[in-house]
């Protein structure tokens, strides 16, 4: 995989803006909250950051709605959301938004005798299942897509997020985009959804995964890191090129390329159901929200430095997580922007490093 060495060497402005970390600086615990979609990555980043710098950082996964609420009310140092805010909303709340990671959302099942990736579904059939139109796994529509499988005569149990979740928002948006007629009965509801018929609700991704695993015939949806770490039985999805694709890192990267994600700017770009070879059809970026004019210079410095250090590691920061890193040029643009923040009094918020020498060594690894 490519490193960030060349792009950052070519950006002296970003390098020269790094300041020394004062030896007398007090320990400040930075707190973030929000999206569960990238939670495992942020928690790992926080642990790595604390080990490297000695500065504690806590991330509390509570759903995208909680992330937006927390940073809007300034009860946390940063919020995280899978559903980007519009420029009008950012202006209203006094926030700045930048992307951090790209990952997939994976429908997965608990079907006895069916291995991970064996079950094939297209957008229309998947939408009919989630709309409650298809109620048993041996339905003729499912069998038509899986002629080589012996599908059990089990009722389909839909397990959904009961909390406000960006994962739910993105998943429902995919269904309504890729199969609008079949998914019309599924109504988005502010981070939740109104699902036709009876469903099993779960608060958070971990509980949703546990509920699916405990329920034969169940189907759920979760971010790609859960799919990898919990050995979930993900389905193969038909993409717009007519290919059945597995939820893998190359398939997420293919969506980034096909969707020209952040190619020329940082405005949110949809990666749902994009047309390209090898593309997983349910891919999304996830975002961080910070105050445009933070009141605490120290807390803002720690917050920005946390993300600076994470971007500095490039591909290594997300290796093995189930997520794809942002394009290198995008990471470089974000680093430049992280050096432009000022407090209400006009003080520049420093993106602090242990020392300029140590920063250069880290970039060259």
UniProtKB/TrEMBL annotation:
Signal sequence extent: 1-25
InterPro entries from the UniProt entry: ABC_phos-bd_PstS, PBP_domain, Phosphate-bind_PstS
Listed CDD domains: PBP2_PstS (cd13565)
Domain of life from the UniProt record: Bacteria
The keyword Nucleotide-binding belongs to this UniProt entry's keyword annotation: no
Functional note: Part of the ABC transporter complex PstSACB involved in phosphate import.
Entry similarity comment: Belongs to the PstS family.
Quaternary structure and interacting proteins, as annotated: The complex is composed of two ATP-binding proteins (PstB), two transmembrane proteins (PstC and PstA) and a solute-binding protein (PstS).
Name the record gives this protein: Phosphate-binding protein PstS
The gene coding this protein: pstS
């Amino acid at each position: 995989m490519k490193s960030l060495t060349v792009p950052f060497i070519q950006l002296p402005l970003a390098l020269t803006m790094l300041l020394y970390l004062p030896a007398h600086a007090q320990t400040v615990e930075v707190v973030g909250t929000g999206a569960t979609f990238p939670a495992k990555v942020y928690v790992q980043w926080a642990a790595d950051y604390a080990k490297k710098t000695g500065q504690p950082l806590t991330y509390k996964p509570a759903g995208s709605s909680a992330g937006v609420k927390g940073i809007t009310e300034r009860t946390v140092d940063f919020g995280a959301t899978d559903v980007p805010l519009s420029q009008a909303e950012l202006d209203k709340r006094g926030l700045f938004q930048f992307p951090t990671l790209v990952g997939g959302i994976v429908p997965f099942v608990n079907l006895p005798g069916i291995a991970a990736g064996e079950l094939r579904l297209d957008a229309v059939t998947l939408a009919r299942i989630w709309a409650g139109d298809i109620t048993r796994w041996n339905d003729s529509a499912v069998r038509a897509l899986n002629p080589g499988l012996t599908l059990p005569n089990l009722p389909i149990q839909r397990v959904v997020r009961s909390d406000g979740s960006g994962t739910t928002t993105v998943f429902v948006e995919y269904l309504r985009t890729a199969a609008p007629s079949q998914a019309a009965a599924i109504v988005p509801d502010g981070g939740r959804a109104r699902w036709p018929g009876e469903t099993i609700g779960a608060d958070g991704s971990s509980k949703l995964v546990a509920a699916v695993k405990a329920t034969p015939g169940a189907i759920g949806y979760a971010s790609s890191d859960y799919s990898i770490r919990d050995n979930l039985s993900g389905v193969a999805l038909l993409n717009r090129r007519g290919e059945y694709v597995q939820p893998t890192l190359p398939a997420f990267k293919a969506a980034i390329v096909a969707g020209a994600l952040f190619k020329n700017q940082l405005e949110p770009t949809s990666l749902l159901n994009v047309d390209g070879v090898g593309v997983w059809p349910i891919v999304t970026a996830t975002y961080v929200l910070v105050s445009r004019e933070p009141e605490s210079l120290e807390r803002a410095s720690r917050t920005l430095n946390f993300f600076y250090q994470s971007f500095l590691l490039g591909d290594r920061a997300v290796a093995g997580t189930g997520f794809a890193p942002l394009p290198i040029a995008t990471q470089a643009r974000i680093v430049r922007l992280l050096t432009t923040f000022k407090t209400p009094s006009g003080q520049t918020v420093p993106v602090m490093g242990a020392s300029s020498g140590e920063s250069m060594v880290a970039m060259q690894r």
